[in-house]
From TrEMBL:
This is DNA polymerase IV. Mg(2+) binds at D13, D107. Its EC number is 2.7.7.7. One of its GO terms (molecular function) is damaged DNA binding. Binds 2 magnesium ions per subunit. It comes from Salinimicrobium sediminis. PROSITE patterns: UMUC. Monomer. It holds the Pfam family IMS_HHH. It comes from the Bacteria. InterPro entries: DNA/RNA_pol_sf, DNA_pol_Y-fam_lit_finger_sf, DNA_pol_Y-fam_little_finger, DNA_polymerase-Y, DNApol_IV, PolY_HhH_motif, Rev_trsase/Diguanyl_cyclase, UmuC. PANTHER family: DNA POLYMERASE KAPPA (PTHR11076:SF33), DNA REPAIR POLYMERASE UMUC / TRANSFERASE FAMILY MEMBER (PTHR11076). Poorly processive, error-prone DNA polymerase involved in untargeted mutagenesis. Copies undamaged DNA at stalled replication forks, which arise in vivo from mismatched or misaligned primer ends. These misaligned primers can be extended by PolIV. Exhibits no 3'-5' exonuclease (proofreading) activity. May be involved in translesional synthesis, in conjunction with the beta clamp from PolIII. Its main location: cytoplasm.
């Protein structure tokens, strides 16, 4: 077993980012329950302020249900250009400390500060300083998790939200993970959590008692991931440049549509949007996937891989038409989406390294 160098990883997560930006820019919204997203029958909440979350309003919830939970809820249309502007300012702060920054989205990122530009040996102090600078330069609050790897830092950043941080020192990792509720493990969604409950797994300790064979049998490829992370082993590095694996767009309709002619009109618009995004990212792809969500909420995908790279609206739409006519629609449709993968940025993934048990070394954290 190879002795691995101890790392100092910070996960910074902005608090209710989209909603907080709206409240920052519009003082009349401060202290009120707001949701960023559409208020229509088919609208979805993209983000909710903490005032709205007290009523159970959360992201990905339908606008109808959100309004039912919180009758005083105020809907605000998203302004992604504004969110990107502020996100870029926040990332500028990150780069003052390290070049090893891996953004996950506009509102969160991993930072490896094992060796940092400030020469500060304490990742805890760096995280606090970063959060203070974000507040000073943007007026927004951020939370942070600090630990020995990305997984634990990600989990820890949620512990003292909003506007807080949590450090899990090397010697605390084992106890921290054993006491953690299984639904709080990053990568364990509601469906997986329910399955684990049925198997008698409620905490990290319960998960740790299950063998690798048991977890592989019940959770497939994810079994090995669960086996190692509950032991504090997650060797994924902070990657400063993340390679895009796919690019797509989708649209949810105000009313269900059943006419293929109407569907083609919508798909043409989506193809145009993808063409713009491909041009902006300077990429092309070989695999087209058509995503269809029916009125009964069942989801279907149809894919085709070409022998050449494409990026034009015409070629994307031609292939999508083939996929659309591949078989008859079983219901009316509420959502259509197109994605392009197998991009020309893809590189052969290195074979997954054998899991190595890291010798946990104490250091000033």
């Amino acid at each position: 077993m190879e002795k691995l160098k101890q790392r100092k990883i910070i996960h910074v997560d902005m608090d209710a980012f989209y909603a907080s930006v709206e409240q920052l820019d519009n003082p009349e919204l401060r202290g009120k329950p707001i949701a960023v997203g559409g208020s229509s029958q088919r609208g979805v909440v993209a983000a909710a302020s903490y005032e709205a979350r007290k009523f159970g309003v959360k992201s990905a919830m339908s606008s109808v249900l959100a309004k039912r939970n919180c009758p005083d809820l105020i809907f605000v249309k998203p302004r992604f250009e504004r969110y990107r502007e502020i996100s870029n300012r926040i990332r500028g702060i990150f780069f003052e400390y390290t070049d090893l920054v891996e953004p996950l989205s506009l509102d969160e990122a991993y930072l490896d500060v094992t060796e940092n530009k400030k020469g500060n040996p304490s990742a805890t102090l760096i995280a606090r300083e970063i959060r203070e600078k974000i507040k000073e330069k943007t007026g927004l609050n951020a939370s942070a998790g600090i630990s020995v790897n990305k997984f634990i830092a990600k989990v820890a950043s949620d512990i003292n939200k909003p506007n807080g941080q949590k450090t899990v020192n090397p010697e605390e990792v084992e106890v921290f993970l054993e006491k953690l509720e299984i639904r709080k493990f990053y990568g364990v969604g509601k469906v997986t959590a329910d399955k684990m409950y049925r198997l008698g797994i409620f905490t990290g300790y319960d998960l740790k008692q299950r063998s690798l064979d048991f977890l592989n049998e019940h959770f497939g490829k994810s079994g090995e991931y669960y086996y190692w992370v509950v032991r504090g082993i997650h060797n994924s590095e902070v990657k400063s440049s993340r390679i895009r694996k796919s690019l797509g767009a989708e649209h949810t309709f105000e009313e269900n549509i059943s006419s293929e002619i109407f569907m083609l009109e919508r798909l043409e618009n989506i193809s145009e949007e993808i063409e713009r995004r491909l041009a902006k990212s300077k990429v092309a792809g070989k695999t087209i996937t058509l995503k269809i969500k029916y009125s009964d909420f069942t989801l279907q995908t149809r894919s085709k891989t070409l022998s050449y790279f494409i990026s034009s609206k015409e070629l994307i739409l031609d292939t999508t038409k083939e996929l659309l006519y591949q078989e008859k629609m079983k219901e009316s449709v509420r959502l259509l989406g197109i994605s392009l993968s197998n991009l020309n940025t893809d590189k052969e993934e290195e074979k997954e390294e054998k899991k190595e048990i890291a010798v946990q070394l104490k250091f000033e954290f």
